[in-house]
Each structure stands twice: as C-alpha cells, then as structure tokens.
Give the backbone structure.
Amino acid sequence: MEVSDSLLREPACVQSLLSEEPGPLLFRAVARWALGASVVVLAAALPAQGAPPAARAASGWSYEIANRVPAPRAVLVLMPGFGGAFSEFSEAGGTAAHRSVLADSLAARGIALVLVAPPAGVLFGDDTHLQQLEATVRETVGKLSADALPLAIGGFSAGGTDAVLFAERCAAGRCTMPHAVRAVFAVDAPLDWFRLWENASMVVEHRPPGANVEEAQRILAALEARLGAQPSPAASRYLESSPLAAKARGGGNARSLAGVAVRAYTEPDIQWWMEQRGLDYYGMNASDAASLIRHLKLLGNTRAELVVTTGRGYRANGLRHPHSWSIVEQGELARWLGTQLLSR
C-alpha cells in the first residue's frame, strides 16, 4: 500500500563515484548493503545528457525536459510518486545533470522525455487536477514541437495512478489536446481506490508492526474527500472516480483503455511486505496491477501486459524495497515505448 516515494540518496562514497566520468562512458555505481555485506556493482551507461532545472508551468505544476531531441518523433510524460522529486529517475542522484538509461535510450529513438509533477501535497486529485495535468502536457510538449506528436504517459506509485487516470480520460474523449495517448504504464501504482481505502483503514485501526500509519491516515483523508466517509464498491462516487474498480464489469473506468497499449509493473515480494510492513496480498499494489491487466485482456486488449519482477526493488541508498522505481528495466521500457509510439 505505498503511494509516496521519498527515495533516500546514495551515500557519499557512491556519490563521489557517480560524479566522475572516465572516458566517453559514465560508470554508475550502485551500492547495496544487505545482510551486513556491502556489494558494489558497476554498470556502463550512455554519455550523460544535461537537463535544465525544473520549471513551473502556467498550471502550477512543475516540469523538466530531461533529454534533448532536436526533432522529436514522440514524447513520454513521466511522473514521480507522491512527494517525490525528478531526481528519482536519475542515476546521478541529486546532481544537476540527469543520467538515466531511460532518457538516453529514448533520445536514441527520437523520443523526448518530459518530467511533470503536481504542486506539493496533492494526492488523488479530482477532475480539475487532471485538467491541470492536460494543460501542463500541452504547454511542455508545445515547447518541443508544433506538431501533434504521439504521446505516452507513465509514472511511479501515485504518479502511475495519475498516468492511468489521464490515459482513461483521453481514451474516453475528454481530452482536448491534439496529442494522441498511445501508451500508458504504471509502476506499482495504487489503482483500486476502494481496496486502498479498506487497507488504509485496517492499518490505522490495527497498526501492524512496521506499517506506515501516517501515510495510511493521509490516504484515508484524501480518499474520503473524494469518495465519502464510508465508500462501497457499488457507490457511484467510487465507480466514477477510481482508475480501477476490480469488482465491476470491465474494471470500471479501466475499460476505456481497451484500445490503448498498457503496462503495469509490480514486484510482489509477499515475504518482504509481511515482515517489514505487516501486510498481506490485499495490502499490495500488485493486486491492482494484475486486476487491471486481467480486465483489459478479457476486453480483447492484446497490448496489455503485466510485468512481474523479482529482486530488482532497491532504493537509491541500497535498501531493499519492492515499491521502487528500480524494478523497471529502463532500456527494455524504451524499446517497448518505441514500438508503441513509432511503429503505428
């Protein structure tokens, strides 16, 4: 049940390695401390690409163009988790220039990468929130090209929730921008708001060891503002606003994605969640990911994919956590996006 992502930064020894660029390649150090042992893995990446500091759109949202493509053929809009920073998508941690496999791999295919985030404190936004997101996309993509470029949108955690909501909105004909949303992906995102409300209620009431009670309280407040104090799986406010209604025919709003390429990433490490957070399968966002893809496949969507990973979830400081952006294999994601955006 996690929607936030205050990723911890690399220790100083790792940051010093990241700051050096021997030869034409950037060598990235990822330090993982587990079971008392320290292991350093070196991985080669493409040359770093500089990125300007985050700017503010007229909507009040923040944005950053994370790679530079002279004549882009398509655009990916990417959103961090609740309270997260754009640097979460960079292998360079908090340094100025973005260094990511995803940014470089997309640039090599002519796909621009734009990072966007809502004002601080916004969680499970309403229709106005999605209108602001659309305005931000229009403004930022307009800075890249006057053409109506094909668009993909994705995000981690609550950013993935917004991505799915936005894709559903556009697929249902409620977007006015000229850019067609051809693909959407969500990385361990909470999608069924009734399941999330029930689990947050349990955490607040029973306070299992290791559970993030403060986050659960924040989730309850945000969802009850949207759904009412006692939501139910049959309530109209839930069915109209939740990106997924797992028990509804077609998955509720998810059915609008029947013709869109969709990916849901998850790393369902049940042992970790039981031992570290006191939760079972119902408390994991993995159940939403599987339900979303199941519904879409039943609707005939042959481009709906559930991507299940094992042992990839680590925070930037090496801590094991399956709810992490690191579960995404970035080069492979770029290839998938290239296929969906450029091959049609």
User: Anything to note?
Assistant: The mean pLDDT is 84.
